[in-house]
Automatic annotation (TrEMBL):
This is diguanylate cyclase. SUPFAM superfamilies: Nucleotide cyclase. The chain crosses the membrane at residues 6-28, 35-56, 62-83, 95-111, 117-135, 147-169, 181-201. Residues 247-380 form the GGDEF domain. The keyword Protease does not apply. Signal peptide: none annotated. Keywords: Membrane, Transmembrane, Transmembrane helix. It catalyses: 2 GTP = 3',3'-c-di-GMP + 2 diphosphate. Its EC number is 2.7.7.65. It is an enzyme of class 2 (transferase). InterPro entries: Diguanylate_Cyclase (IPR050469), GGDEF_dom (IPR000160), Nucleotide_cyclase (IPR029787), Rev_trsase/Diguanyl_cyclase (IPR043128). It comes from the Bacteria.
Amino acid sequence: MMHLPTIISISILLNVIIGSFLLSLYFLRQQSSYLYWGSSCLIFVCAQIAASLRVFIDFPIITHYLADLFIISAPLAAILGIHAYSQSDKKCRNTCAYVLVAAAVILLLAFDSQFSQLITTAIIAACFSYAAFALRKLHVKRIMHLVLLKLCFVIHALIMVTQFSLLLSDYLGLLQTDLKQVLAVILISHIVITTLTAMIWPLMMFLEHEQVLSDLANRDSLTGLLNRRAFISVSNNYLEQANNNLTKLCALMIDIDFFKRVNDQHGHETGDEALKWVAKKIKSQLREHDLVARIGGEEFAVILPNTSQAQGEILSERIRLAIHNDSFVHNHHEINLSISIGIINHKSGTNNVNELLAEADKGLYKAKLNGRNQVVTMAF
Ligand SMILES: Nc1nc2c(ncn2[C@@H]2O[C@H](COP(=O)(O)OP(=O)(O)OP(=O)(O)O)[C@@H](O)[C@H]2O)c(=O)[nH]1
């Protein structure tokens, strides 16, 4: 059997560290989800300290009543944290306050009886079930962390439902056995899983914000493709590798034909949707390690590593046909789009991707002059 005081001490320490970290993030970024989650960790610490005092003092208003209120407040604060992240915490704040006030009144009438434990357990079981449900509102890219968090809440809710059933059976005199051991195991699970939940949340938030910052710096916000700066930086690495390994690499410059007409005839919003559609079409024809970026208004660039000129031409033709043979449909309007492509195969020793793109651009210019909707290959 695990040593309960040791587990409580470790949990208090971890929750103090995580809670303080989240509160300092709140003061730095002024995002209330950090305030709620930080408070949730510190309230849970207060709950553990108040409940642990039962061994030393006989003062149930603190060791039972206050401890129970803290135990209920911790998941309520976590729920507010979830809603604050999806900016829907205003309505939820009142509901949480009502639950807390109702619990405070009911527990005041029964805080020194077995009944208080039943009420506390029922409320936190409901809180954890709701928290798992509320997570659906979070739009995060790291699904794995979200699944883990949901799992923690669901397991926690199940543990609390088990405790509630045992306590109720005992209260009604249906059980002949001593519940002490089982309740101790449930208590340990409650402490461990709360601490685990407190650890997953900041990790998920941290990685999520890193992703947002990285996207802001490296991605085109309309299409989600790389922007010019990130594209040039990664392409130069690809070029260096191609030179070192003596492998072939192709660069493509792609431009949508007569795109001004799309904007003029259907409006800028339709033009934006058309850009997204073309970006998707281009990406759908590429391999995972090919690079694609939107480097200008209606201009895209592609780098194909480990690709010979013949392979690059086949792929360019595939991209062109994917757009030419399909129609972009928006607001019930069917719009036929086409693209022109300039392609160049790199010459060993070329170490600046801008040189390659300039050559591919010459091919693109020729394709436009020749009547558009075609691929033109350039050679060094
Ligand atoms: N909707 C939308 N339009 C854009 C964006 N960036 C550039 N454009 C438009 O793209 C059009 C580009 O037009 P042009 O450079 O004249 O070329 P084009 O009409 O595509 O003709 P060719 O390239 O010669 O075939 C302009 O009307 C720009 O306003 C954007 O982010 N969204």
